[in-house]
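Justification of computing resources. Each target in the renewal requires a structure prediction run like the one illustrated here; the chain below, 127 residues long, is used simply to show the kind of job we budget for.
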Amino acid sequence: MLAAIVALEHLKPGKMRVTSDSQYLVFGASKWRFKWKRNGWRRGPTAASNWIKNPDLWRRLDAVIDRHVSVEWRWVRGHGSDKNNCRADKLATEAAAKFCRPKQTVVVQESALLTSHSSVLSSAVMP
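Resulting structure tokens:
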């Protein structure tokens, strides 16, 4: 979703075609966003309705779509059916491997945490 937003933000206004293997993006942008926007970025018209996921990104996408003459949304099946989609997946995977750090799991023993917490409390309370 963010890739589509950034691409549309950087292109001069005009007629665009966005191809994606994300039904959430394609159908959200071409069909659902009008209702969501009318409902204040909620799934339904009442205040009790659930917020849509990523309302900040949908607002941003909605604004950038409006800058263009037209945006055509095209869904393709992922993983093998479209050569450009496969190329985009490959480039995204390579970029993620190059620029993103792997998630690190930090294990903290409860006794060590309590000891350091007690030390901080002691030094804050006692002069």
